[in-house]
From TrEMBL:
Histidine kinase domain ranges (all copies): 356-562
Catalytically driven reaction(s): ATP + protein L-histidine = ADP + protein N-phospho-L-histidine
Record-given protein name: histidine kinase
Keyword Signal: no
PANTHER family, sorted: PEROXIDE STRESS-ACTIVATED HISTIDINE KINASE MAK3 (PTHR43065:SF10), SENSOR HISTIDINE KINASE (PTHR43065)
Domain of life the protein comes from: Bacteria
GO MF term set: ATP binding; phosphorelay sensor kinase activity
EC number(s) from the headed UniProt entry: 2.7.13.3
Keyword tags: ATP-binding, Kinase, Membrane, Nucleotide-binding, Phosphoprotein, Transferase, Transmembrane, Transmembrane helix, Two-component regulatory system
Residue stretches spanning the membrane: 12-28, 35-53, 73-94, 106-124
SMART domains for the chain: HATPase_c (SM00387), HisKA (SM00388), PAS (SM00091)
NCBIfam families: sensory_box
Length: 563
């Protein structure tokens, strides 16, 4: 087709559309046959209730009315039937208000039908020898092919001829044979109503079933889209697996947050997602007996990360085999919250116990220390060095008692602006004798002035506790300890480093756990006290371990404070 003809084609269709009313007027002049009126009425009904075909396409059986009118009453009568049928179709699919766009669409549709009617009418005139059933069916196919091609050329859409082939492919033989049989029976010289009526009922049933089937398909598609949206945006993982464990569906919502695509899991075994320690238990659940729909907890490994999930496995029976729907919900945050609550309850209970023990120890300890000081000279005469050893151990008991008091209910002390660097320097001076005694070098610097808001006494106790713990750990490894304070734009950072094994990587998140320490001789109270004081001052304590060289780094962060 040349370019000029392609541009002129819409105007040709419009001219052919204008010819339809003229032909209809010519056919309806004078006395109109009753059967022609019946055919026109049937065309309106069939246009209003089209047949629903697979793929969402619709097919109007009114084409057989056009063929029947052309075969019985000629070209003009068929044009009259086309005029009322196309007008009904435009009214059915349009809005209540008739606009110029509707008129233009009506003329183009009439033109396509008139163009299809010409070869159809010629075919009917040339093959009168064929049985009426086959002649009607072939004429209907020719009419529909020409009309579809005309619509495709008018729309100028990509893949238009492929769409024509798809539309013809969707025409099931039953779609043609039932209405063609009814049309051939109606066109017979002597109609046999015992045959015509059952055929008409069969055609009506077929039309109703096609409409009902289309409704069910739409409902299924709507449900599928709804479930797809839920699966795509759900925070839970939804898997469908065969009885062998092969994954056939995976919801992308849960996986995309972990950098894994759903396609990467399709075809894999669901057992590959289960942590090794829970493999045997999950293997028992993925059975008809074990898949009881109850919630269970296990660990999964997705995208190289371990995820604690709450799992529910439900069996579904299909026509071929049993499948399993696996719903997994990430409960890592809930477990962390539960662990934090348990930890807080433990710390609260420990604080109450610590306060009780500290009060019970403080009074006898004060008495013992007083008498030891009173009999200092006698002790030196009886056993030289005994006083220093006794006094050192009593001081250690006093430090433990003071640490237990910190774990009790925090005191309501006012916070003032203080220099964290100066406080750290004072704490280092207090711990210097212990470092000399243990043979550990305590290096300080830089200790920059850094203003924070807090209680100087508690901050000093925090540094003393951490430095003592570091010195004990460094003495075991025959290493050194360093202390530094750095001022930042948002606060201050204090860093304590010491040589040795320190805290294992798996336990680095437990600086506040009771009775946990980085040295063999410690009780764990030093870190616990320091962690509690840091939290009360709006800061936090981080513990990290390095292997090259082997050392432990304790980093304290505090917000900036002004007096």
């Amino acid at each position: 087709m040349t370019f000029n003809l392609r541009r002129a084609f819409p105007y040709i269709l419009m001219a052919l559309g204008l010819s339809a009313p003229v032909c209809a007027a010519f056919a309806l002049r004078g006395q109109v046959p009753e059967w022609l009126l019946a055919i026109m009425a049937a065309a309106c009904v069939l246009e209003w209730f089209p047949l629903h075909l697979p793929g969402g396409r619709r097919f109007s059986a009114s084409v057989f009315c056009y063929v029947l009118a052309a075969d019985q009453y000629g070209f003009s009568a068929a044009s009259a039937a086309i005029l009322v049928g196309v007008a009904t179709s435009v009214i059915r699919t349009g809005s209540r208000r008739f606009t110029r766009a509707h008129l233009r669409r009506l003329l183009f549709s009439l033109g396509a039908h008139q163009l299809a009617l010409a070869p159809t009418y010629a075919l009917l005139e040339r093959v009168p020898f064929l049985p009426c059933l086959f002649r009607t069916a072939i004429a209907a196919v020719v009419f529909e092919v020409v009309r579809l091609i005309a619509d495709a050329l008018f729309l100028e859409a990509k893949g238009r001829f492929r769409s024509v082939l798809d539309a013809l492919r969707s025409l099931h033989p039953v779609t043609l044979l039932i209405p063609a049989s009814l049309a051939s029976l109606l066109s017979a010289p002597q109609m046999e109503w015992p045959v015509v009526l059952p055929t008409a009922a069969l055609f009506a049933s077929f039309a109703w079933l096609s409409r009902r089937q289309a409704q069910l398909v739409d409902e299924c598609e709507s449900a599928r889209q709804t479930y797809r949206v839920i699966a795509d945006h759900s925070a839970d993982l939804v898997l469908i697996a065969e009885s062998s464990g092969e994954i056939v569906f995976a919801s992308p919502g849960f996986l995309s947050a972990r950098g894994v695509t759903a396609d990467a899991l399709i075809g894999c075994s669901v057992l590959d997602l289960v942590a090794p320690e829970d493999f045997a238990m999950f293997d028992e659940w993925l059975t008809p007996e074990g898949a009881d729909g109850r919630d269970r907890e296990l660990a999964m490994e997705i995208g190289g990360a371990r995820v604690d999930v709450e799992l529910r496995i439900t069996p579904i029976e299909t026509h071929s085999a049993t499948r399993y729907v696996i719903q997994a919900r990430d409960i890592s945050a809930r477990l962390r919250k539960t662990a934090d609550r348990v930890r807080e309850e433990r710390l609260e209970a420990l604080g109450q116990l610590a306060a009780s023990i500290a009060h019970e120890f403080r009074n006898p300890l004060t008495t013992v220390m007083g008498f030891v000081q009173l009999f200092r000279d006698q002790l030196e005469e009886l056993a030289p060095g005994a006083y220093a050893a006794m006094w050192g151990e009593l001081e250690r008991i006093k430090d433990v008692t003071d640490a237990l008091m910190v774990l009790a209910k925090p005191e309501d002390v006012p916070h003032v602006a203080c220099d964290l660097g100066a406080i750290a320097e004072t704490a280092a001076a207090v711990c210097q004798p212990l470092a000399l005694e243990r043979g550990v070098k305590l290096a300080c610097g830089p200790l920059e002035p850094a203003q924070v808001l807090g209680h100087p006494g508690q901050l000093r106790q925090m540094f003393v506790s951490l430095l003592r713990n570091a010195i004990e750990a460094a003495a075991e490894a025959q290493g050194d300890v360093s202390l530094s304070v750095t001022a930042t734009e948002v606060g201050a950072i204090a860093t304590i480093q010491h040589a040795g094994e320190g805290i294992p990587t798996s336990l680095s998140a437990r600086p506040g756990e009771p009775f946990y320490d980085t040295s063999e001789r410690g009780t764990g109270l030093e870190l616990m006290v320091a962690h509690r004081i840091a939290l009360e001052h709006g800061g936090n304590l981080e513990v990290k371990r390095t292997t090259q060289p082997r050392k432990t780094v304790l980093r304290l962060r505090f917000p900036q404070g002004n007096g």
